[in-house]
Amino acid sequence: MKVLICIGHVPDTTSKIKFIENDTKFNTTDIQYIIGPHEELVLTRLLDLRDAGNNMNITAITVGLAETENTLRKVLAMGADDAIRVNAEPTNAFFVAQQIAGVVKNGNYDLVITGKESIDYNSGQVAGMLAELLNFPSINTASKLEIQGEKLIFERETDLGKEVIEGVKPMIVSAGKGFAIEPRIPNMRGIMMSRKKSLAVLEPTQNGANTKIEKFYLPQPKGKCKMVATDNVPELVRLLHEDAKII
Amino acid sequence: MAVLVYTENWNGNFKKLSYELVSYAHSIAKSIGSQVVCLTVGNVSNENLQLLAQYGASKVLVCKNADLEKFTTQSYSSLIAKAAETEKAKVLIFASNASGEALAPRVSVKLSASMVSNAVGVPTSVEPFVVRKKAYSGKAFADVVLDAPVKVLTLTQNAYKVEENPQNLNIEDFQYQVDSADLKMLPSEIIKSDGKLSVSDAEILISGGRGLKGPENWGMVEEMAQILGAGTCCSRPVADLGWRPHYEHVGQTGKVVAPNLYIAIGISGAIQHLAGVNGSKVLVAINKDPEAPFFDSADYGIVGDAFEVIPQLNEAFRKFKAQQ
Question: Which of A220, A223, B13, B94 is deepest in the core (most CB within 10 A)?
Answer without folding.
Answer: B94
